[in-house]
User: What shape does this take?
Amino acid sequence: MKTESSQWNNNTAFLLAATGSAVGLGNIWGFPYKAGENGGGLFVLLYIFFVITLGLPVFMAEVFIGKKGKSNPVSSIESLAAKSNSSASWNIVGYGGILASLIIAGYYAVIAGFVLNYGFLTASGVEEGAAQALWTDQQSQFGDMTMWTVIFIVASCYVVANGIDAGIDKAMRFLLPMLFILVLAMVIYGAVAGDFTKGISYLFSWKSDDFSAATVQAAIGQAFFSLSIGMGTLMAFGSYMPSNQKVSKASGVVVTADTGVALLAGLAIFPLAFGLGFQPEGGSALVFETMTEAFARLGSVGQFVGPLFFFLLAVAAFSSMISILEPSVAFLTQKFSMTRMKATGIILIVCILLSLVSIAGHNVWKDLSIGALDNPFEAMKYFADDFLLLLVGTGMSIFVGWRLQKVVDSNTMGIENKAMMNLWIFILKWVSPIFLMVIWILGNLKVLFDYDLVAVILAV
Ligand code: PFF
Assistant: This one.
């Protein structure tokens, strides 16, 4: 059985693939609406704070596991556990990541399917005042949603089936430059056609009234999701890194690019929304309802700018989806000695089945609540993003911080300064596990049991 990964054939492949993974719907669809819901500037500041203090260290830990373990998420952890005399059961962290990646694939593709559909809808023109009804109608169409979702999944699987160089690297080399140009074009358009000053002040002004434990949870969850932490993607991509590439530098580049695009997305969306007289607190419908209405008001210009915006979203979603598929495909090929083609075929079927559940959550199973969660779509999203992701993040942090101290080396990490290295280990050992677990417990108590422990403590 061959468990070692092959390597990217050049030094920029990891940077491109990991940035393509990180920059996705989370940045352009998720970040602006979450900032809108959580009081603008305060959320943005918290987000940046968590990206630097927790996101980057745990990101580096995940890439390190992959690079040093040189295999899929499960086998990498197993081989490092053996090297450090740790139990092989640590591989549960890898399995958790793969499970999260599959569930995410199942709902992410559905949102991406809407994006494709909306590209065409806005191109053919949406009448003023019709966006809200259109969004309600689109969510009720099981057949249409399935068609767009399946197109998206098949296209992503096609790239993955072609391998890491001829498939993933080649696609990223084309997608990423396009993505950056499109984001910049949207920012410039927002600045010219929208209310740029109002947009900026919304994004960066401090509104302390809106501060609550939920803001902290939202900021940290968003930071991890946006950086693609905790789903095995970074381990898989890290395992293909050439030996002379350094983990810390590569991670820094990707994290900076991801945060930059999230801020740029805010700068593209808020000025346009304000300029057209909308409040950007539209929740997850911000993109499909508010932006579509904004494009409708622009008349024939909207028939050009609208599709451009949705094309940008589609490109971002596509490069992320490719990366979401990689951990499970790598796992199947290496653990079961399957061809990449066969492994991708199996994952394709799993993704389609999961996406059907998530599609049904919008219509036929719309009212099928699962515990405190409204429907299967929300349940999948919650279970992967808020439940599993933080658990896997904590697991990787503890594994590297406590078990791999003898395995971690400054050469692989590219950290020469001893104090910096100690700080990184200290964060992994203490800060991130404690912080992530407190957030995890508080968040789950609130969402699953409607028990607001913070309010109870504050009231005492
Ligand atoms: N980081 C991506 C986004 O912001 O949309 C989503 C994502 C990609 C999550 C890859 C997880 C992953 F493995």
About this structure: Residues 21-22, 24-27, 101, 104, 225-226, 228, 231, 233, 320, 323-324 surround 4-fluoro-L-phenylalanine (CB under 6 Å). The chain has one domain: 11-459. The chain has a mean pLDDT of 93.
